[in-house]
Design goal:
The chain has 155 residues and is mainly alpha-helical. Helix content is 55%, strand content 8%.
């Protein structure tokens, strides 16, 4: 019973809930980025490189049992049971990673800027000043030094 209670306390903490929300949003963001790369960014790049479909860039390491020879697409090769090295898919994954890494960098950079602004808040107005005669700290509105009794008016 003690372990269940301890787990409930752990799960109820705000940081755990925030982390769970972050993971869920991160997974959704990853799906959006994957689609952005596969469906929006890579097709024009493939077109510029001579009508190349990056998802179909692969090397056959071992022919499948059902068919031998060249395969038109990665799906055909996998359906035939061929062992493939899918470097086109890997390129798409690298581009996705770079987009996510850049987005995280921008997010962290902006958070750090906000923290620096909070830290650089103006210091409160001074409440004391130094006596010009004995250099002891006295209230800013004082007209006579309590230490050396010097008159401070006009100073």
């Amino acid at each position: 019973m003690g372990m269940i209670k301890e787990f409930k306390e752990f799960a109820a903490k705000g940081n755990v809930v925030d982390m769970a929300v972050g993971i869920i949003i991160g997974a959704a963001f990853g799906t959006i980025v994957k689609s952005l790369v596969a469906d929006v960014i890579m097709p024009p790049i493939g077109l510029l490189l001579g009508d190349v479909d990056f998802t179909n860039l692969f090397i056959v390491l071992k022919d499948g049992a059902e068919g031998m020879g060249s395969y038109a697409t990665l799906i055909d090769a996998q359906a035939a049971g061929a062992v493939t090295l899918n470097y086109g898919t890997f390129i798409n994954t690298i581009v996705s990673f770079l987009i996510v890494a850049f987005a995280v960098f921008v997010l962290i950079r902006n958070i750090n800027k906000m923290k620096r602004k909070e830290e650089a808040a103006p210091a409160p107005a001074p409440t004391t000043k130094d006596c010009p005669f004995c250099f002891s700290a006295i209230p800013i509105k004082a007209v006579r030094c309590p230490s050396c009794t010097s008159n401070l008016e006009g100073k």
